[in-house]
Amino acid sequence: MTEASELAASYELVVIGGGPAGLAAATLAAQAGVQTVLFDENPGIGGQIYRGITSTPVRDRAVLGDDYWAGGALADEARTSGALIVNGATVWTLDPTLTVGVSIAGKARLIQAKRVIVATGSLERPFPIPGWTLPGVMTAGAAQTALKAQGLVPAGRTVMAGSGPLLWLLAAQLIRAGAKIEALLDTTPRLNWLRALPFTPDFMISPLWSKGLKLLREVKAKMLVIPVGSVEAVGSDKLSEVVFDGRRVPADLLLLHQGVVPNVNLAIAAGAEHRWNSRQLCFEPVLDRDFNSSVPGIAVAGDGAGIAGGPAAAERGRIAAIAAVRALKPSASVPDPQTARNALQREESGRAFLDVAYRPADAFRRPTGETIACRCEEVTAKQVRDNADLGCEGPNQMKAFLRCGMGPCQGRLCGLTITELIADQRHTTPAEVGYYRLRPPVKPITLAELASLPISEAERKAVER
Amino acid sequence: MRTADVVVIGGGIHGCSTALHLALRGLKPILVEKDYAGRHASGVNAGGVRQLARHLAEIPLSISSMEIWEHIQELVGDDCGFTSHGTVLVAESEAELASFKARVDDLRLRGFTHEELIDRAELKRLVPAVSDHCPGGVVSRRDGAADPFRATQAFRRRAVEKGAEVIEGVMVTGLKRLGEIWRVETSDGPIEAPKVVNAAGAWADRIAALLGEPVPLHVIAPMLMVTSRLPAFIQPVVILRGRKLSFKQLENGTVVIGGGHLATPYRDRNATVLDWTKLAASAETVWELFPAMRAATIVRAWAGIEARMPDDIPVIGRSGTSEGVYHQFGFSAHGFQLGPGTGAMMAELVATGSTNVPIDGLEIDRFRTKI
Amino acid sequence: MFKRLDDAGTTMTLTVDGTPIRARSGDTVAVAMLAAGIDHCRTTPVNDVPRAPYCLMGVCFDCLVTIDGVGSRQGCLVPVREGMKVETQLGKREAGR
After folding, report:
1. What sections of A329-361 are H helices per DSSP?
2. Which residues of C lie inside 8 Å of A (Cβ-Cβ)?
């Protein structure tokens, strides 16, 4: 494992995130001769979708499926590309001067980049239901991570709830791995299917269609699937029951999922402009066709640019890397970006259908009453709505009054909820309301880590009077 | 045509306090703020409510302001999170302590008793967590801290309740004298008033320039860091002189670390870029002063956009060129505590033509020959 | 809540609040605790309620534990090592840890 002291003071290209976008970008740039470093905070590469790809204890390839194993090629290429890949490296700051602050094993360094590609991917949309903070309630992604990276499957009474392709994929993977799931509570609003009709032709010709159908059939054959309008987690110190539409079922583990949204924290803190995507119901960066953000020198590739899945992420990474290489070494030989653009377009067709079909219900995005809206600071939906009524117009003012967004997760699990609650209560749109103003460090760092930054005598003198 | 008795430019704590105090005197102010009240320095500073270590010219205003802080609930209907456990200026060497003693002696000669020299034992009693290498310091026992955004918003809210109008998201673009009246051009149309107060913070030089009196205002972006919650281990606010540090633990357990290290401001974009090497040096200072803080977690860092004058003291008083215009800006990163009292004083000056609070040495004319 | 698919991989021992648990190389601290059936890994600083890992990918911060004396570590990002001392993080993190 590379140590902080082994890092150079500067790199031509810094890639942040070791999922498909980051791996593809680092590979292409390094192969073109650009001095490239890739930072990822996990112990291994692969990001979320290919988590554990180089180390998974899951031997039976059928469990995780072919799409997962396709990540192996990406990982192999990256490791032999000449890019320096650093795991266990948490990037905590990025700014318009392209200074990257990174911590490895408790030691921090500031790295100067000439170009940066932010490939920090997506995270699961918050799913604020009553009781969602109880021990025993986790995301579907968490169960998938535990399966891929450590070969763990749910034991005990497990219920899945939510909506979206990843929920079905996980259900299938868990069945194949031999886990027993009591029920899958499908929260997809019935009306979505009607709304999705116009997008169906594009979807049917995309590779997602047949894969999706197969998955659905596989899961429905082996698992009880119940359409529901409400879900609650109940228990005193931990989950004991799941309540849905007036029925109760005992449970030890509830896995929630209602889609993924871009992980915007690093890009926003770096100053990149973002805007509301009203079809995908999330904020995403404003980018040009090469995935350059509004901050010169910073590109955002992968799901962080907008949700489109793993293979699309790799193509976006390649397009962004080509632009970076052309800027850094105009004479270097790079592949024709049109190949990647064509592949990307194929991957993106059919997304509209998924976005509309699996659009989460208002009730699950805009909670009420005592349901926790901000997990870190334990702020309830009622508190947020009441403050919105008192005149709090936006999340930054809300933050000052209720502390929502001031906890360590920095809004990753509450930002969208808070924005939507304010929009709901004040009868306006999330686009109008805006998002938290995010500042570094985007991941907490200890005073010791910060003090471990190499400081010259001149810099030390600068802070004396 | 919108009209008012006074147009107040800028919705920081100074503008909001002045607007409130004008309304309390029965005048009708209109406050124009280009973003929202408390968006900049007033809303994001370390919240220090401090009399300690001030320039002589600021001390009368600081004392009158402190009296208001102690009754803030009555004035604005909100306690603003104000707590008072004193501010302690820690000496790190005998030489420093000697220089502090000279200052305290000098203040006493001038009749100011708010600063008190303390020895090692008293320092340890007040700040048990401080490192053993510190031989003593100075304490101002009435000092404390408050929530800056909450306080600014409380002044804004009370000002509106008492009859002020507050317009946000609107920028002043011009100032023109028409007879006895000022026509204030804004991005949302003009407002006319006989009097204008320039409380525009880091943008106040632009307002002054519109009046033909340019000032050497320097835009700065002082940085702050805040930790995650820690069990209570320190009560007073702690500051250092030789090395830049301000350090306080809030009621909720988080620790706010400041000291005036500067980020790079971009005032036209409301943006700042932090300087991590300076924050690292600040972290080292905290480490050496408070060993218990070594494993504390920094959760957020930020910087406000503020105005600094070359002599580090504000510009308060009548315009040197323009009848009916008053200045209240340039607080050089230590204006928060002065807000309540300066607003009261400014309202008195605007309404009656004079004020009882001494503001000698703060007039804008001191820059006239120096540009 | 969770069980292992098979028994491959080197095992090792860590302690959680003094109690030894078996973990496997490749586990993260959070996963080792889940596999050992530990209910919660911290209590919150605001209301003192128990929490357990939620996302296992470093974004929820509910898996915060003290590891070898250093508090507020995200258990889901730290690979296990033989002899590691893990402690649940109760309420506000202590200043010295």
Report:
1. 337-348, 351-357
2. 1-6, 8-9, 24, 26-28, 31, 34-35, 39-40, 44, 46-47, 49-62, 64, 70, 72, 76-77, 79
Taking each helix axis from N to C terminus, what angle separates A395-402 and A381-389, rounded to the nearest 10 degrees? 120
Other beta carbons within 10 angstroms of residue B6's beta carbon come to 26
Between β-strands A253-258 and A158-163, what pairing exists: parallel, antiparallel or unpaired? parallel
| pLDDT over threshold 70, residue B48 | yes
ipTM of the complex model: 0.95
Q: Is residue A128 part of a domain?
A: no
Tokens of B366: 């001191």
Cis amide linkage into residue A441, ω under 30° from 0: yes
Q: What percent of chain B clears pLDDT 70, i.e. is strictly above it? A: 99
Which ranges of chain B would DSSP assign to H, the alpha helix? Answer: 13-24, 41-44, 59-69, 72-76, 94-109, 120-126, 148-161, 204-210, 276-289, 339-352
Between chains, do A446 and B295 touch, taking CB under 8 Å as contact? Answer: yes
What is the three-class DSSP state of B328? strand
For the segment A160-171, what is each residue's pLDDT rounded down to a tens digit?
Answer: 999 999 999 999
Q: Residue B24 is which amino acid?
A: L
Query: Is B121 part of any domain?
Result: yes
> What confidence tens digit (pLDDT) does each residue in A449-459 have?
999 998 877 67
Residue A276 structural domain: 4-123+261-334
- Token pair of B79, please? 């306690």
Longest CA–CA separation in chain A, Å: 73
Residue at a domain's end among A204, A227, A258? A258
Q: What is the pLDDT of residue C97?
A: 44
Q: Which of C73, C84, C72, C79 is nearest to C29 (CA)?
A: C79
Plot region of A403 (φ>0 → left; ψ -120 to 50 → alpha; else → beta):
left
The three state secondary structure string of B122-135 is HHHHHCCCCCCCCC
Among all chains, which residue has been given the structure tokens 């920094």?
B298
Of A258, A289, A311, the last residue of a domain is A258
Contact: B228, C94; criterion CB under 8 Å = no
> Sign of torsion, CA A243 A244 A250 A254?
negative
Q: How far apart are CA A263 and CA A283, in angstroms?
A: 9
Q: At how many degrees (to 10) do helices B148-161 and A395-402 cross?
A: 110
